[in-house]
Design a protein that fits this description.
Elements (H helix, E strand, L loop, with lengths): L8 E4 L6 H31 L6 H18 L2 H7 L6 E3 H34 L4 H4 L2 H27 L8 E2 L6 H7 L5 H32 L5 H29 L9 H22 L2 H14 L1
Length: 304
């Protein structure tokens, strides 16, 4: 897997070099990670086995929760382990694998959010044709397209990463492997690769964000003709989605839509979209959705 490089491993700087702070980070992020897994697991299992959550919105929510759990798993376990390790070493192959996984599940999330916004648009703006447009066959096809698009995006990133030769030093100023910190360590001119990487990841962030804004703008525009009750229900659902979109896309655009410039705040921003957002998503969708809460309560009470 390694190409044109004399470096066999990298040393991650982590979030802190202080031993005491490392122990604090270990406790906090272990709790956050386990809570993320539990929350997303509950949503996945509830949607899978509940008979009342069979609509396309919950079909897409199933995959959003799955992608959230996987996305958090790509970075959180290593951050937790490294926080109490003296030497935060990651092999070259592990680093490349992490880049692929981070971009695969990181791309899957905005694509599923687009599918959810499309579902809300059809449900609110074209209610009479909703069941025809959002059939199970169409939903399956859309999710499969999202998987394929995520694979293409992450494959493009890993191809660029594999073209980078590393001659030393091998200290990555981050808590996980990503293109921006790796570009700083390469011993060749990385301006072209950086441009391609920004175009790849940045384009996905910007295009997805614009598509989501347009879809929700159309939804909000159409709400003028709805009844007061229907308008309140639709606004509640759309508000949840918009909160998720802002929480995910603002940090991502800050990271992936700029040229090769590393800021001290980058690691904190990355914590927000790799660890905080996968935890907040299930909380937002359950706490603001009475249907999910009722189905979850009924299903798990019966199981217990």
């Amino acid at each position: 897997m390694q190409m044109n490089s004399s470096v066999n491993e990298f040393i991650l700087s982590g979030l802190t070099q202080d031993v005491l702070m490392g122990k604090v980070i270990f406790v906090i992020f272990l709790f956050l990670y386990l809570t993320t897994l539990l929350a997303n697991f509950l949503i996945v299992m509830t949607i899978k086995y509940s008979q009342t959550l069979g609509s396309p919105m919950y079909f897409f929510l199933f995959y959003l929760s799955f992608a959230d759990a996987c996305f958090s798993t790509t970075t959180a376990p290593r951050l937790i382990a490294d926080s109490i390790s003296e030497k935060k070493v990651i092999s070259y192959n592990e680093c490349m694998t992490q880049i692929f996984a981070v971009h695969f599940f990181g791309c899957m999330e905005p694509l599923v959010l687009i599918l959810m916004s499309f579902d809300r648009y059809v449900a609110i703006c074209k209610p009479l044709r909703y069941t025809t447009i959002m059939s199970q066959r169409v939903c399956d096809m859309l999710v499969n397209l999202a998987w394929v698009a995520s694979y293409i995006h992450s494959s493009a990133q890993i191809v660029l990463a594999l073209r980078l030769p590393f001659c030393g030093p091998n200290d990555i100023d981050h808590y996980f492997c990503d293109m921006q910190p790796l570009l700083k360590l390469s011993c060749i001119d990385t301006s072209v690769i950086n441009l391609l990487s920004v175009f790849n990841s940045g384009a996905i962030c910007m295009v997805s964000f614009i598509m989501l804004l347009i879809s929700y703008a159309l939804v909000l525009h159409s709400l003028r003709n709805q009844s007061a009750e229907g308008r309140t229900k639709a606004l509640s659902t759309c508000t949840s989605h918009i909160i998720v979109i802002i929480l995910f896309f603002v940090p991502c655009m800050f990271t992936y839509t700029r040229p090769l410039t590393v800021f001290p705040v980058d690691k904190l921003v990355a914590v927000f979209y790799t660890i905080a957002t996968p935890l907040l998503n299930p909380l937002i969708y359950t706490l603001r959705n009475a249907e999910v809460k009722n189905a979850m309560r009924k299903l798990w009470c019966n199981k217990l």
